[in-house]
Amino acid sequence: MQVDKQPKLTGKDQWVVLKRLLCYAIPHKKSISFAMLLLILTIVGSIAGPLLIQLFIDDYLTPLRFPKNEVLTIALIFIGIQVFIVVVSYFQLLRFQRIALKIIQQMRIDVFSKVQGLGMRYFDKTPAGSIVSRVTNDTEAIKEMFVSVIVTFLQAIFVILGVYIALFALNVKMAFMSLLLLPLILIIVVIYRKYSADFYQDIRERLSQLNAKIAESLSGMGMVQAFRQEDRLEAEFSAINEKHYRAGMRNIKFDGILLGPAIDLFYAGAIVFVLGYFGFLSLESPVEVGVLYAFITLIGRLFQPIQQVMQRLSIFQQAIVAASRVFKLMDDSDMEPEQQEIEHAEVQDGEIEFRDVTFSYDGKTDVLKNISFTAKAGETVALVGHTGSGKSSIINLLMRFYEYEKGDIFIDGVSLKAYPKAELRKKTGLVLQDPFLFYGDIESNIRLHDQGMSSEEVRAAAEFVQANEFIEKLPASYAQKVTERGSTFSSGQRQLVAFARTVATNPKILVLDEATANIDTETEVAIQASLEKMRKGRTTIAIAHRLSTIQDAELILVLHKGEIVERGSHQELIVQKGLYHKMYLLQNGILEDVIE
């Protein structure tokens, strides 16, 4: 399994990621401005409270002067401020939460859309669980940043500004001394940001590996149980889980040192400093108790958002690392092959020509070498050969799943690259050896959510391939529920649905990748007649291991190690007594001739 490893994030890299993340907030700038206004109002209220109490202590409590109306007014104003803070805080948090969810909603759509457009090369080298982790876990981590961290950072900025304005109003000299706290806290933030990114990146990578291992185990559960691989997979999962645990513990220890205790120490030092300063000041002249109360309270208000920021720095670092992984996926250049479209290019007859095509999956080893052949309109060309000979690679290129390096492929004399992708998909019908059924029902799997296709057309397609015989026996007929991958149906039934799906689109080119391999002999005999009808008027490229299914093909290509070593009709190849002849004898049990 490939390790989902990324280079370490430098400070510059983190800043670039943060700016890119904040770009997602631009469409919501009006809502953000309103939410920030509400945030400022709550901060003003929270600072006004201690100042109001300071006024009451110095002007009324200390001189023991309690005019009823004035004291009652102060009390009502204080209560009103607290109620105002609660109400405005609710709407402010609600607004920020809604913005955050909208941003992540858009980001997930962008990531999912990107995944849909990636080429097969990307999926060949990246575990499915790793991709799932980026679309789900990583975006969830980013959501937490927008939900709590951004709000906390903004709140801290406004609170610090408001508190220092109030402190300067109370005591200018002491306020200047209090400014020394800020560079000390900034040093802690810089140290934390520098080292925590590596820890969180390690955690995200381990989590991605956990997801990949889980996805691999679930998708291959049948093989896991059949070959008694449970213990091995459990041991591998446990090993990855242990690494994830160790990475998490390293981070917890680091957080425990720098986040809570360090800030608490600064806070305690600040309180001692304030009390000491006012204590020495009281030796020379009286100190207003209200000012002392307000100063200590405001210092507490100053450290409260700082503590919250420090606590959320871990969330921030996780989000930055997660975002870098998401953006790496979004920036991946392994896209599906691009088309150099010719306007109004349309597949008419379906004649296919491969002309000196060479192809490699890894850019090093050629799996196809100078492949050339022509499938005339309405003809069937069969591809045979041993495993790894290049049969599926030819189909992958024809379907435009991969870009080929040398040579070209033509349809009706026009390069495959010149057709719009939608035109190629519309005019080419593909049936795989292991058909994929989507969650839903039988009818939706045949029509593939094409609302322009009527129920009558769906049923006609099923009847054409004789799938209606088993469908109509189901309790809900065409409305029968299909679970994930169609696991409740037999291989043959899934294949019949796939045939019906292909027939329903009425393609000009038919591509069969060992399409009858999972169908029993009785069903195969019945479906061969349907295939014969399907092939009429359509150009067919068929991969076959059972040679009995392609003996009527106009052209049979025998591949070996990426090259066409024999070509001709069934009878012509039998006469040549080459590789095809040996394969034919083996499948018919005539071993003596092969040995000789």
From TrEMBL:
Name where it mostly resides: membrane
Where does the record place the ABC transporter domain? 352-586
Q: How does it sit in the membrane?
A: Multi-pass membrane protein
| Molecular functions (GO terms) | ABC-type oligopeptide transporter activity; ATP binding; ATP hydrolysis activity
Localization: Cell membrane
Out of the domains of life, which is the source?
Bacteria
Task: Kindly list the GO CC terms recorded for this protein.
Answer: plasma membrane
**Could you identify this protein by its name?**
ATP-binding cassette subfamily B protein
